[in-house]
Amino acid sequence: MSIEAMKQALDLLEVCNGAEIVEGVIIYTDKEITALRQAIEQAEKREWVGLTEEDEIDWEGGDLKSLVKAIEAKLKEKNQ
After folding, report:
1. Residue 58 backbone dihedrals phi, psi, to 5 degrees
2. Do 30 and 60 lie in a common domain?
3. Dihedrals phi, psi of 42, to nearest 5 degrees
4. Is this prediction's pTM over 0.85?
């Protein structure tokens, strides 16, 4: 989940907090809001790791789209 998506979810939870439970719909508590705030803080503090000249990209040639996907996969691997 992206930081922006987490912030949007947090905004929604804060607006919905305190509403009544209707037909079994679960309203989130302060515990969930706090956990989401902490997740956002951690994600914002995490430093991006880019590619270096030593990184090998698993690309078997082909079109530009497959190269972009290979680069994206390597970046995701390094930034988990």
Report:
1. -80, 90
2. no
3. -65, -40
4. no
Say whether both 54 and 79 belong to one domain. Answer: yes
How many independent structural domains does the chain possess? 2
Amino acid at 53: E
**Which residue from 51, 30, 39 is spatially nearest to 5, judged by alpha carbons?**
39
Selection from 39, 38, 33, 29 nearest residue 1 by Cα: 39
Which domain, by its residues, includes 62? 50-80
Helix, strand and coil percent figures for the chain, each rounded to 5: 55, 0, 45
Residues 55 and 41 in one domain: no
pLDDT in single tens digits along all 80 residues of the chain: 678 888 888 887 777 665 555 566 665 567 777 888 898 888 888 888 899 999 988 888 888 888 898 999 999 888 88
31, two tokens: 């515990």
**32 and 12 within one domain:** yes
